[in-house]
Amino acid sequence: SQQGEEDPQALSIQEGENATMNCSYKTSINNLQWYRQNSGRGLVHLILIRSNEREKHSGRLRVTLDTSKKSSSLLITASRAADTASYFCATDAYTGGFKTIFGAGTRLFVKA
Amino acid sequence: SQTIHQWPATLVQPVGSPLSLECTVEGTSNPNLYWYRQAAGRGLQLLFYSVGIGQISSEVPQNLSASRPQDRQFILSSKKLLLSDSGFYLCAWSVTRGNSPLHFGNGTRLTVT
């Protein structure tokens, strides 16, 4: 079964607006990661937040993690048309061996 | 710097034909290697991972197999493809298992006809 589930499935915004994507998961985790995928390409790692961290920033990206609610959010500020892509959360959990499990992703479309 | 190469980029194969997808990593030693499959509009499903030469773990029973003949080479194979094997196959590597990011190749789009 899927560990991470992103919400919304799709998001369309205007350039300059902020984009917020959410991820919920079911079991205890070691860390949570966000990845970006341009159409037809491989995934690119954006940010990793450990289970003992609550917030992390990288450029225009801000990630929060609430382990009590088993949820995370990715905020992209001042979005650009080039941010158009699918965004995936992935969780690392130890279940007899580490596994990185991906959600189904949020498709973000930024209109110029 | 580390790079990952995956080929071919696209492949169309008839049902019942064999498959061999290759992935190589440069610029790092003893990487953890992974094969994922992505169905259209969906997340990634882990198929195989390897922590060393000749060490392969399978996550999902299926028509596919993986091999790691060299430290930085990972091969995905099938003796006879099924229609359900169609999908986007992604190879990835990481420094450690858990707590380190995955670095992905550009993927192979496989269509079984």
Provide the descriptors you would attach to this structure in a database record.
heterodimer, A: 112 residues, mainly beta, six-stranded mixed beta sheet, five-stranded antiparallel beta sheet, 11 strands, B: 113 residues, seven-stranded mixed beta sheet, four-stranded antiparallel beta sheet, 0% helix, globular
Structural class, from helix and strand content of chain B? mainly beta
Average pLDDT reading of chain A: 91
Please state the average pLDDT score of chain B: 92
Radius of gyration of chain A: 13 Å
- Please work out how many helical segments of chain B DSSP would assign: 0
Number of strands of chain A: 11
**Biggest interface between protein chains, with counts per chain?**
A-B, 27 and 24 residues
Q: Give the oligomeric state of the chains in this entry, treating copies of one chain as homo and distinct chains as hetero.
A: heterodimer
What is the N-to-C succession of helices and strands of chain B? Answer: EEEEEEEEEEE
Share of residues in strands of chain B: over 45%
User: What distance lies between the first and last C-alpha atoms of chain A, to the nearest angstrom?
Assistant: 37 Å
Number of helices of chain A: 0
The proportion of strand residues of chain A reads: over 45%
Shape of chain B: globular
Instruction: Please compute the radius of gyration of chain B using only Cα atoms.
Output: 13 Å
